[in-house]
Amino acid sequence: MSAQATGNDPARDEWYAVGISAYLRSGDTRETVLMEEPIRIMRGAGGSLSVTRADGTNCPVLERYGHVWTSLGKPDHALFDIPEDVQAGRTLVDCGAVRVRCSPLRAVENFLDIAHFPYVHTDVLGSEPHTEVQPYKVHVEEKSDEVWATNVRFYQPQAAKSAEGGIVTEYMYRVPAPTTAILYKTCPPRPGEWDIITIFVQPLAEDLCDVWPWMALFDDGNSVTDLIHFQQMIFLQDRAILENQMPRLLPLDPKMEIPTRADLTSVAYRRWLKRRGMTYGAQTEAA
Amino acid sequence: MWEPVALADGLGPGGVLRAAVDGQDMVVWRGRTGNLHAWDNRCPHRGMRLSFGFVRGDRLACLYHGWQFGPDARCRYIPAHPDLEPPESITTTAFAIAECTGLVWVRAAPESADRTNEIFGAAALSDEKPVAVRSLPFDVPIAHVRDALDGAAFPIDAGLKAGSGQFSTDLTSERLVVLKGTADGRQRTLIAALQPLGETRTRLHLLTAPAADAALLRLLSRWAERLRWFVENPTSETLSWSPLKTGERPA
Lengths: 287, 251
What we know:
The complex is a heterodimer. Chain A is an alpha+beta fold. Helices cover 16% and strands 35% of the residues of chain A. In chain B, a hairpin with a 5-residue loop joins β3 and β4.
């Protein structure tokens, strides 16, 4: 909180998704909130976008991955690259927002977790007795300063809308920004390729967020509506958990919550946040 | 202070509920073999409220990752690592819990020895085993419900149309009002346990002894609803059968 008080909060210099591009046509306005500050998104007659604060000053704005992105500060970096965005053959799906009464960082951490699948997404993404999490690898990519988890494998009764019957699904996770996580999972209809599912988390407050899922899938035969319904079912199951974790803020003090080997990604994510001073939505000291 | 959090019949084997006792958020649950537990309502792994969890045998499992905690509040099983013996250090905090007079009582303090005496003092409640009538929430602070029951200010025999005679009130403890009298021509005891739900709400757990038939239980249940109407609507003109004593009308 002290960093915010002095105006040096690095969270202010990050990019955040604040709306879906396609929903904003010429002349449309969307009012929303970013880190407790009301903002207004407007698309002008020529199609260009602006994001303004209550005092009338402009925020930086760009459109990518189906969403409108902005920042309250001065981002010193371009928005992270998701190369799958332009790969031929993928269906790009924006899913709308799921509002969750939790820290934006808790929402990301839950997305990086697989051990909950048998209990929270029972008979869909996991099922007893297939609960074991095999060892996997986690590292922070030096050049890009991104958290990666690789060699993640888990038994899933119905891994995706296009999956029939149980399979061992392989995953990778990528955290390119504090409130963005990308999941790569093996793609039943296209062996050798990865489906990607991302969440872009818009922090409304330290304990309230809108989660914007976005997918780039190789899928055969499922309508976009079916794909969205599947994701909404998954996210609503997660919401029941996220709104009942205490404290609401993500604890960065390792004494506060006990991890195991299955939580390597979560441990790396928390350390990485701490190192970057990303304390918006975090609790830095034991209560 | 010991607080009544449930009718013992209402928390059967495998039952899990959430209760706030002296500001402490708790999970209260009963194992399949009947043992009761009151713990801090937080899984030490990722902070999930354990009151969303489920009972397997004599263990409570967290809904989030299925971590199982045994009767001693120690973590005994982590499904992500089925072969791992969880370290001793993974525990949750246990609080004192007791089953007395058909009620589950909890105190936001560690386990203690002489629980019955702590809860009831020396008062004799009833010679016969009480049976549960029902629990129901009131939208008023606990003092308002107590005041209505105090000194039989609330007309028990008016609600119990089949009954006659006088009921007298015994304020056994701050959380318990015992009413004794006759109904259906027989001696009857009503036990009203009061659970504060924050500062502004109260839950009444009602029991009676001796055992009552379905018709009498229904009458007592309706009596409790009338009591609630009476306490929540102190200015209502519709309750002509409620001879409130002057000065005892809830604010």
